[in-house]
Amino acid sequence: MRETSRREFARGASLATALSYSRILGANDRVRLGYIGLGNRGDQVHEAFLEYADQQTAAVCDLREDYMELAAKKSRAAPRKYKDYRKLLEDKEVDAVVIATPDHWHALMFIDACQAGKDVYVEKPLSLTVVEGRRMVEAAERTKRVTQVGIHRRSAPFLREAVELVRSGGIGRVTVAKGYHILNEWPLGIGNPPDEPPPDEWEWEQWLGPAPKVPYNKNRTYYRFRWFYHYSGGQLTNFGVHYMDMLRWCLGQDAPRAVTALGGKYAVRDNREIPDTLEVLWEFPGPTLMVFTQYNCNAAPGNAQGSEMELRGTQGTLYIHGNRWEVVPESQAAVEVPARTPLDRARERAWGASRKPVMEGRSAKGSADTRFHARNFLDCVKSRARTNCDVLTGHLSTAATLIGNIALKTRGYLEWDGKAERFTNNEAANRYLHYRYRAPYKLA
Predict the structure, then answer these.
(1) pLDDT one-digit tens code per residue, 96-109
(2) Out of 17, 38, 116, 260, which could bridge 413 as a Cys pair, Cβ 3.0 to 4.6 Å?
(3) Residues 398, 422: one domain?
(4) CA dist list (Å): 6 to 19, 248, 365
């Protein structure tokens, strides 16, 4: 059996064992979960937890009754229903909560959950602002809660192999790391619906929460909120935080030391605020350049492999896809680069001919299914161990993407102090690290 095949068999057997074991646990071993937000991603995360018998959907909370009804039906249980998340947090029959609301609600709900004595699984991106993220870290530390941020690649065994390869020097010194979000939204994008009276004034008020009061527009609500800065950091924090976290994990770095960005609405004419075209560039210690690219097209990313991410090392390049990774070896010459002269082309040709691969290619396949991440959270709720992507890990990756948006808004080259979490060369940019909540909402 080939080595890759053996690894694939072992991974499959490991997941099967975990699933089988979970289904024989008794009711006393169950973690009773309360779900806050059951829209698109909330529904997906709920399904991931439902794979395991040692959990129970004890309560659900959403502004939409139909979302709660669907979740209750899927759970094959009789969860209690709430429209106010604070009532769910008061429920003594809930051990831990899963938060999958729009980004601008994450901080308030997370901190309230910690203070209510609940462990927390919160979807990515962790927060809407850098200040929120740090307060969330402090709240979890103060209350000693088990936390998991929904950056689920952290729980994928095959990706951990890729991280170990890079960190061990397997592709040499990494000088560039890239992530790509490629989607052609031209020409209609999300459209241009007019502002109008909300279908339900109370629901709109609850949706906005701490965000500024603005006229109702259907594009500002379910799922499409990600195209508006009051509620989301756009695709840079939606998809980009996955890439930032994976690449940062490979590099073993906490925070960048500088960031700059360019982009805007270059192609699509809808009522969005976020760019359809964007390039963000960070410099990490190493030094290593990291790049997030958002293109409005259907073509593959800027490499022949069409991967989501790439890390370019001096000995090889690692390409990361959704369910596999591959290392393409670099070739190196035995002599230094010759001077190019019209009198000695032979030396130039000899230099090229002397280039040889310095390592063997490698590859692996696997799954980054959210089920692995859910399993890790359930295990850690029981053991009180640190999860694969605790709130601090999620904060560092989210904050790096958030300062990319600040660089775009200020059109600046911003130097970042990762310990103080402030810009050192542009005081005006620091004003974007948080925003004033709408009364009566306050950040603890």
Answers:
(1) 999 999 999 999 99
(2) 260
(3) yes
(4) 20, 28, 11
Q: Are 321 and 308 in contact (CB under 8 A)?
A: yes
Nearest alpha carbon to residue 263 among 300, 299, 295 = 295
Number of domains in the chain: 2
Look at residue 441 and tell me if it is in a domain. Answer: no
Cα(259)–Cα(417) distance, integer angstroms: 11
Q: Is the pTM of this model over 0.70?
A: yes
Q: Work out the average pLDDT over 125-145.
A: 98
Same domain, 406 and 312: yes
pLDDT per residue over 40-66, tens digit each? Answer: 999 999 999 999 999 999 999 999 999
Tokens of 356: 């040889």
Both 355 and 231 in a single domain? yes
Residue 1 has pLDDT above 90, yes or no: no
Rounded CA gap, 272 and 60, in Å? 31
Token digits of residue 348: 């130039």
Distance between CA atoms of 338 and 187, rounded to whole angstroms? Answer: 50
Rounded to whole angstroms, how far apart are CA atoms 179 and 156? Answer: 18
| Same-domain check for residues 135 and 191 | no
Pairing of strands 331-332, 309-313: unpaired
Distance between CA atoms of 11 and 432, rounded to whole angstroms? 44
What string of DSSP letters covers 106-146? Answer: HHHHHHHHHHTT-EEEEPSS--SSHHHHHHHHHHHHHHT--
In a shared domain, residues 383 and 354: no
Residue 263 vs residues 63, 228, 282, 371: alpha-carbon distances, Å: 35, 15, 15, 35
Question: In this structure, are strands 119-122 and 96-99 parallel, antiparallel, or unpaired?
Answer: parallel
Are residues 84 and 91 in contact, defined by beta-carbon separation less than 8 angstroms? no
**Measured distance CA(440)–CA(25) in Å, rounded:** 44
**Alpha carbon separation from 218 to 221, 273, 285, 380 (Å, rounded):** 6, 14, 43, 39
Q: Which domain holds residue 286?
A: 156-368+393-433
Write b or e for each residue in 8-30: b if 16 or more Cβ atoms lie within 10 A of its Cβ, otherwise e. beebeeebeebeeebeeeeeeeb
Residue 4 belongs to some domain of the structure: no
State both tokens at 261. 């960005």
- What is the distance, to the nearest Å, from the Cα of residue 348 to the centroid of all Cα atoms in its chain? 46
Average pLDDT, the chain: 92
Give the integer Cα–Cα distance in Å for 67 and 38. 6
